Amino acid sequence: HEVANGLAGFDNAAMTCIPIGTGNDFLKNFGDDLALFSDAENLWNGDVVPLDLIECNGEYCLTIACSGIDARVGEAVHRYSGMPLLGGRGSYLASVAVNMLKGVNEHWTVTLDDEVIEEEFSLVSTCNGRYYGGGSMPIPEARMTDGILDTVLVKKVGRLTFARLFPPYSAGRHRELSRYVRVVRAKTVRIQSGEEIVTCLDGECFRSHDVTVRLADKKISFFGPKGCDPDRTAR
User: Fold this and answer.
1) For residue 116, what are the β-bridge partners?
2) Which residues share a beta bridge with 59?
3) Contact, 113 vs 190, CB < 8 A?
4) Which of 95, 65, 66, 68 is nearest to 196 (CA)?
5) From residue 154, how far is each of 7, 28, 229, 235 by CA, in Å?
6) Consecutive sets of 10 residues in the chain, 235 residues long: mean pLDDT of each?
């Protein structure tokens, strides 16, 4: 996150990534090539690819900018990541369980370009990449090179309903969940609330009463193993 924010918009600099994170969700976008990133000797063979960026309150992220219960899960996950036997995915699931007990929904005013919606939401997540939360894939169609952001909105649901929705939501089956889930391609998404909103940008979290998300004017130059494709797993 810090490196991407420092290099955003500079054509004379490029970044890469070695998979030693909690979930390695960014590199999951590269499919089976993720394993090649583990060996630094592979990283110099490929071309430099410009990737789209999400801009959120003056910061940039590569994959997903989320607000709501998924962001609260991301904020709390590091409390569990060091526990034996859990692993990356397990620590996310533990954080989901704990945060569900605290409540799923929050009252927000959400503006999608010119459309204003005031009601309770479980989450609003804008996707450039496809993975977060240790492997959840809300929008399998999202691509990191097409200049388009997909935003998924989950309306108010009870704890049991959320638990039932979580597996198909994580598997990218949002079309089966149209009663609860809406996907839009808005140029600007704004979330406002009298209470603090937890927002997570590629695993880095902050709190605010006013969150604005849009496609950034800047791109990030990325390099990796020969033939690697950031849209490899896109449907």
Assistant:
1) 111
2) 56
3) no
4) 68
5) 33, 24, 30, 21
6) 94 94 90 94 91 97 95 78 60 70 88 97 97 91 96 93 91 94 97 97 94 98 95 94
| 19 CA to centre of own chain | 17
DSSP conformation letters of 96-134: HHHHHHH-S-EEEEEEETTEEEEEEEEEEEEESSS-BTT
Strands 188-201, 48-51: pairing is: unpaired
Spatial contact of 130 and 29, defined as CB atoms under 8 Å apart: yes
Contact present, 223 and 14 (Cβ < 8 Å): yes
- What are the start-end ranges of the H helices in 79-223? 87-102, 159-170
CA pseudo-torsion sign 150, 65, 4, 86: negative
d(CA 214, CA 173): 24
- Residue 108, beta-bridge partner list: 119
Please give the DSSP secondary-structure letter assigned to residue 147. S
Cα 6 to chain centroid distance, Å, stands at 19
- Cα 86 from Cα 160, distance rounded (Å): 23
Which of 214, 224, 153 minimizes the C-alpha distance to 186? 214
Helix (H, G, I), strand (E, B) or coil at 56: strand
Give me 47's structure tokens.
């071309």
Rounded CA separation 138/149 (Å): 13
Cβ(37)–Cβ(225) below 8 Å: yes
